[in-house]
Amino acid sequence: MADSESLSGLLSACRLVCREYKSENTVVKIGEAAIGGEGPTIIAGPCAVESEHQILEIARLVKSHGIRIMRGGAFKPRTSPYSFTGLGEEGLRLLAKARRETGVRVVTEVLDAMDVPIIAEYADMLQIGSRNMQNYKLLKAAGRANKPVLLKRGMSARLDEFLMSAEYVMSEGNEQVVLCERGIRTFVEYSRNTLDLNVIPAIKQLSHLPVIVDPSHGTGHRSLVEPMSLAALAAGADGLIVEVHPQPEKSWSDPEQALSPEGFARLVDKVNHFIDWQKQYAGLATQT
Amino acid sequence: MADSESLSGLLSACRLVCREYKSENTVVKIGEAAIGGEGPTIIAGPCAVESEHQILEIARLVKSHGIRIMRGGAFKPRTSPYSFTGLGEEGLRLLAKARRETGVRVVTEVLDAMDVPIIAEYADMLQIGSRNMQNYKLLKAAGRANKPVLLKRGMSARLDEFLMSAEYVMSEGNEQVVLCERGIRTFVEYSRNTLDLNVIPAIKQLSHLPVIVDPSHGTGHRSLVEPMSLAALAAGADGLIVEVHPQPEKSWSDPEQALSPEGFARLVDKVNHFIDWQKQYAGLATQT
Amino acid sequence: MADSESLSGLLSACRLVCREYKSENTVVKIGEAAIGGEGPTIIAGPCAVESEHQILEIARLVKSHGIRIMRGGAFKPRTSPYSFTGLGEEGLRLLAKARRETGVRVVTEVLDAMDVPIIAEYADMLQIGSRNMQNYKLLKAAGRANKPVLLKRGMSARLDEFLMSAEYVMSEGNEQVVLCERGIRTFVEYSRNTLDLNVIPAIKQLSHLPVIVDPSHGTGHRSLVEPMSLAALAAGADGLIVEVHPQPEKSWSDPEQALSPEGFARLVDKVNHFIDWQKQYAGLATQT
Amino acid sequence: MADSESLSGLLSACRLVCREYKSENTVVKIGEAAIGGEGPTIIAGPCAVESEHQILEIARLVKSHGIRIMRGGAFKPRTSPYSFTGLGEEGLRLLAKARRETGVRVVTEVLDAMDVPIIAEYADMLQIGSRNMQNYKLLKAAGRANKPVLLKRGMSARLDEFLMSAEYVMSEGNEQVVLCERGIRTFVEYSRNTLDLNVIPAIKQLSHLPVIVDPSHGTGHRSLVEPMSLAALAAGADGLIVEVHPQPEKSWSDPEQALSPEGFARLVDKVNHFIDWQKQYAGLATQT
């Protein structure tokens, strides 16, 4: 196809991330859950682990909606050195406890190459945040870990740079990489970042890796999360990572963007119906 | 709602475009078709009117898919003074002929305030392009015309500026305005522009005007049109404006982005199924 | 030179604006003043003509510093239809009166092709603003006028697009075009726009047209005007266009960015010394 | 001053980096050289240390022009895992050897918190690159080192974020921080990045830290380096960091942007004359 040719010129230096290396879609397993396989996957949870009570409450909430992977930050990257930077290892222990009690799998951010072993001990999936998308020591350390990696796009990353960062992880032997779009920096004033859904079909043409979308950080406004979640799936995303908090306005970080339990319930219901429709339509299309 | 409050701070100087002025959604009528009413509306056609044969062929194609509004440029804004700039009034006559023969309604671009009367004579809807979003004489002239207006977002327009341009049209007495997102300028390399779907739910919070999306100009790549069309509707858009050409690679302008008749048929089929699902889900949600 | 080759690839479709068409620098004459000749030229004045008293006061002030070209808007493009949009033809008459009384030449903005004749009657130079950089009817009308044209860069214009807009003017027979950098739209929060001085040496490589800089609109903050003015000249600009107002905080538009008479006096003094140094250094360099 | 007030609203959470904390300008000492004191300082050298012969040749060249600080990468961050990533510790040894033989001080990049001790052992100043501007472990490790820090702005960093990253270093006890503007990501096509000189006077209003400019990475084109260097100094920069290579076209990385020895000699001559003029003008201004 003429268009995929024009896009493929973008990736002259890629190897392992490219469709040329592997034509079928990669499926990343996180316990019994999977990303990139049959139908989109929702990851949900708070911005940060705040207390045992909070994280257990959210784990049960998330579980009750059939969600199998929970997010939650124990080590938080913060613009200011004076902001709350997470509960650290105590946060990891609370995440592990929430997993034991509910069975949900856990993804949490790792900020530094040296922390990979301890986080890999507690978590089911390692998140590399947008600020660290080109922290190459960290990418390589994650590439030597025995856990799947969730790699978030940097705020000014072109597609070649984003995929090259995944290549860093894969070139160390870890091919379990999920890409995540979470908004780019533009002049726009009505969303904290510009969630760029165009990147989803572009990635699908060029790479076999699954790609999910973070509408919470991507828009920065609770009220934009539901429509942009649906839009992400319609554009072909393999899943969502969404912030939910028992009392969003009391969240210790990013209170503007977390969904309430009610808002989350509405989202999950709509997303599940949409996924059913997608499967049904794909079935129709195959019959023809 | 807390979030809509935070967004509404953006529009301190708006009047007629705001939800505060009019709470229910505006429905814009173009002949027997409508935008902003029940379910999304597709507008389709070539970038430019090239010949009688071409425009009639496309009008019939479009009609055969149940499409009731056709796009087609007679006066084309072009970056270079040496490029093809459209057939001019002859193009308008061909559009009118296509309407007579098929019954499809016609939207075409107006580049200058002085041209409003002649274009209003032939067309059913006046398009103001992204380069002219802040051409205030043109906006006011369109505001005095007796035809609905399709206003495209400028490539670096913030939301307040976009809505203020609609305010220019409305303040002259014409409240039949449809907004159109068609991509903003960013550093991104895999799409010609960055189609910004976040603007759709933001507009829906702040304004009663309908908003449609142009995935053809917004992405610049044929292969991104279908996924971004679905995504636009999932984000809440009231319609799409899509380029289709009998032989895209022979299109006199923008050959990279027009859909082929086959690609267009696939798009319409999927969009129609999606719209059915949306209505069905809305019905479910209402029952609860 | 390798680098100029890499840049020149940008302008495949240009003709008259290119160095290949004309190798020596174009000098644009505005009365006895000139832009692009020996040493940089300052244009100064208020954002808008507000009253006879105001414009005469500024004309005398400007004149007293040896400035020979005054700016001042009679037709103002404004984001909101409810803002002050200039005194119109009365403003033009006041500008003409200020010229008669002081001898300063006058540049003022033209917003629409139809207004070119009347503005050309009163003004010495026609300004085409950033919002109209791709208003092709206006560009062509200015190309048929017998007055030099000051063409401001659009807020999201690439260099090829900017130069192509100059090509529109030139292709109608008017080669007296001055380009003006006035800031591009980026994510930056400390300046209203991002004044992009990199474009100056880039233009100098590719085109023979003179280029000046507007640090007032380009930064939007009075306190950034002096340093960015010097920087513009150091980067090779052929001049500056600066806003000055007797009482900036009472300016009817853009009060944040106009210099006070004292600030303007400091700027002119420093700029004049800098220009002396530039000439002296150029002399030294030639001797070697 | 009204304008500085409007900018100072940007930095609500800053402490140590702010002018409120320390009103006089910070002077950072690198051996007998200094940045932020009397007159601008030039740092120059190759992108990467390639060999003993190369780095000694450049050290001598740089020294012969009176330059007292040399740059040169031993650990190079590269978009692709398959690119040359520097000579590592061997590169550090070669830099130390060049210092011994010529007396020039050495600044080199540190990519990871764990590498701070070894690099601090060899280098006179630690560079934190744009990709790591928000690598907080690295910032804190540099804050505990006994060496001055050169902190480069990230490609999509707002000013508050840039200064907050300096705050991370300072809050660990190291107040010897030099800020460096090196270009932001925009839609522009004629420079690899958009060197944003507006940030210089903005920083000077808000912070006491010195700020230098990297026109080599900032523009990505050799032919833009000289004009943008002069412009940076005219805007108030405390210095430059420039790439120079004996045979630029044979440079192992970024061959498009390094100056040749001849180009570098021209730059230094012009910069030195300009600095003389600045001092002379400052003297004149003081007398008045």
Could you explain how this protein is built, in words?
- The structure is a homotetramer of 288-residue chains.
- By secondary structure, chain A is of the alpha/beta class.
- The first copy, chain A, has ten helices and ten strands.
- Chain A has helices at residues 2-8, 52-64, 89-102, 116-122, 136-144, 159-171, 199-206, 215-219, 222-234, 261-287; strands at 28-30, 33-35, 41-45, 69-71, 105-109, 125-128, 149-152, 177-181, 211-213, 239-243.
- The first copy, chain A, has an eight-stranded parallel beta sheet with strand order 9-8-7-6-5-4-3-10. In chain A, strands 1-2 form a two-stranded antiparallel sheet.
- Chain A starts with a helix and ends with a helix.
- Residues 1-5 of chain A have low confidence and may be disordered.
- Chains in contact: A-B, A-C, A-D, B-C, B-D, C-D.
Topology, please?
4 copies of one chain form a homotetramer.
Chain A: H1 2-8, E1 28-30, E2 33-35, E3 41-45, H2 52-64, E4 69-71, H3 89-102, E5 105-109, H4 116-122, E6 125-128, H5 136-144, E7 149-152, H6 159-171, E8 177-181, H7 199-206, E9 211-213, H8 215-219, H9 222-234, E10 239-243, H10 261-287
Parallel strand pairs in A: 3-4, 3-10, 4-5, 5-6, 6-7, 7-8, 8-9
Antiparallel strand pairs in A: 1-2
Low-confidence stretches of chain A: 1-5
How much helicity do the residues of chain A have?
40-55%
Mean model confidence by pLDDT of chain A: 94
Distance between the termini of chain A: 21 Å
Tally of extended strands of chain A?
10
Which chains share the greatest interface?
C-D, 52 and 52 residues
Largest β-sheet summary of chain A: 8 strands, parallel
